[in-house]
Model the fold of this input.
Amino acid sequence: MRLQYVLGEAFHNMGRNALVVLGAVLAVFISLFLTFSTLLFGEIVRVNTVKWSEDVRVEAYVSDELDGPGVQTLQETIDGWEDVAEVRFVSKSQALEIARDQFEDDPTVLELIEENPAIIPASFRIQPSDLKDYDGIVSRLEGTRGVDSVASAGAAVDRITALRDGLRVFSWVLAVALGVAAVALIANTIHMAVYARREEIEIMKLVGASNWFVRTPFLLEGMLEGFLGALLAVVLAVGVYRLGETQLDGLPDFIDLTIGSNFLVKAAVLVMVFGVAVGAVGSAISLAVHRYIRT
Amino acid sequence: MIRLQNVTKVYDGATVAVKDVGLDIQKGEFVFLVGPSGSGKSTLIRLMMREDRPTNGDIWIAGKHASAMPSWKVPHLRRSIGTVFQDFKLLPNKTVFENVAFALEATGKPRHSIRAQVPQVLKLVGLSEKSDRNPRQLSGGEQQRVSIARAFVNRPLILLADEPTGNLDPATSVGIMRILDRINRTGTTVVMATHDHAIVDAMRRRVVQLDRGRVVRDQSRGVYEDRTRERPAVRRRQMEAPPQALEGQESFPEEPEAGEGSG
Done:
């Protein structure tokens, strides 16, 4: 069987039902765009949470009433805990310097700080020995005299991870539902293509064309539709990502939007393969049930 | 070449189209299947081309046990059978040449042999001049000749024709029969279902007469109507009774079991 023949037939069919084909391609596109975006978003969150949890820190804000020796004793106490790797004291003036740096682009906040330097408290910055286990340190600190309040980046990381997991489940459910719709729509286009060519199929069967000769153009048409949808999804998702990367330049520097090109290529290939598979399944279903094709 | 043994075909579990038919057709024979609509002619053709499987009995086509064949083997069997129908089954968007070539393309023949074989067979059916025409531009007789060319282009062992002259006037039919006869003389076995009396009577070939799914006559060099035999009483009464008398008749014998479509 000539490839030229098969491809020619497939393209010819797609031209005949352009609108229906467009619908199927768009369904594949939307489904796979969501899938691909979910993969990309998941990767960004993963990269960032790993980065954040590397410098997870518990900050204990020290009461103003605590004097020099009091601070000294407290630091030694915390340092003595088994689950603490490192503890560092940030004095009020150091904290003020950090705040000035951090908000140098924000005159309102800067003004507020300059007028009320007392609102910036001194603190202990504590690095837990186990990055995932900071709960014990936090609760012990909360019960310690001289500590006003405790903040931990870990809790924020946990919330973002939970958010990511929720979003991930949601988008996968959506992507699967749309994927099923895409399969059904592709099956429909193939169904229509078979119906439009039922006379030719009848004659092919009369003269003894093999089943594969009859079926391959339709199978290929479905796969081509799936491929086009997937291609569109990858191109658009990568485009949006690149745009976001440049446009969101002003993002705080603890958020890193960089995705390894390795991951990008792998995800794109996965999505394309998936698109072709969706097309193949759709047309196979259609060919299996169609009475003009079945023998 | 074709052998049917105790073949019965029941449609939808109720309509008996063919009942206990035995038939043996040798290589190179020309056989007419005759009988009224619904007598089972078309069903027999469909069974011989393995479009249908018999409910009971066995069918051998070109040495192959067609009735027991899995469906994936059918395409190969079809390549040794040419088929011609009353409605031509030509593709309107292809030329005469392309319609005939289609049979070779669909079975994967190389392009050079298509270019050689199609003009040959178009010459055989007398359409060399019209190979670039569209089927719509041809008369019914010419269209049927295209369909015969397509059926014969890969030199099948068997040619099955179901009412090939059913849509044609008598003069055109004679032309079609000449071509079928020519094909038969090349050694191809021809089986033709028809209810064209004139053709059958003129050709004087083997005649297999069917009535309600049964073979009621098998005669070499026969004619359409066998005057030496008494036709079944039921049929005579049916034909002779005036239409108005039929309506109120309580005890009217049952209709032939096979419907129009399967005959």
